[in-house]
Amino acid sequence: MIENKNETVLAKQTVNRIEEIAGTYSGYRRAHAKGETYEAEFSPSGAAASFTTAEHLQNTNVKANVRFSNASPNPSTPDRLSIIKGMSVQFHLPSGEIANLVGVTIPIFVTKSPQTFFELLNTVNSFKEGKPHFRDMVKLFASYPESRAAIQIIRKLENTKSYATAAYYTMHAFYLVNKEGNRVPVKFEWIPEAGIETLAVKEMVGLPKDYLENEIQNRLENEQVKFRLEIVLGEPGDLTDDPTREWPKDRKRIDAGVLSINRIATEVSDDIVFDPTVVPKGIECSDDEILLFRKHAYTVSHERRSKGE
User: Fold this and answer.
1) Containing domain of residue 139, as a range?
2) C-alpha to C-alpha distance for 239 and 172, rounded to whole angstroms
3) pLDDT one-digit tens code per residue, 1-21
């Protein structure tokens, strides 16, 4: 109980700091404020069924809601200025339960502990502008060497041409659990069927602030947007508690199925909480402190926006 209380206090402090840096926008998420939710259907391949009892990874199609977003806490931030994009999926399982899978366009996180993340927010102010300035990078690397890899990825990241042409990574490790109780560490990736396409700086000139929402809406008028769910299998020695480090590229993968996005979810409230720790039977959260902390931060954010704060 004391641990949970401490985590709640730190979550409030962290959300407060995000608001101090980026401002407070009544009724919006404290991160990934600008986004749109879509109706979708997931068709599992069945290839993961021997690894897990999770309902949506067996042989039955399930409905889903998908929210694409840019990472900024400011809902007015133009898409081109928020370099990291998000794709959150909520599966509606046959049992009536839900399962969430939250991904972003970088494979790792900037810290491995909630306390360090809070301290980092007190160091770097220019994150609100999409990419940290060089002077902030120097200060950051000196104080938080674990953040080096993620910041370097962000600095090199190019804007995606479409929400439909980016790969999205869960960053955190989970466990698949089968009917015998065997557990295997995994990470999840959404791979676009349309391929990966980015925009050069000169191609960004003159784009409307909402170019990504406009593009995917036009795309959906002519075709479904599809992603393959790839499950990366961890091996002994692969860290499950450190989201700042990638697993080796040669890890085996399971092609777990295809997500087909159909249309804007006009009857779905944007009040959905895509808490990444909400997983079904057959999937377990790892001992990643950042993953487990996100539940508390999401709760604080949801409470504030549901009150119109």
Assistant:
1) 36-275
2) 10
3) 344 667 889 999 999 998 988
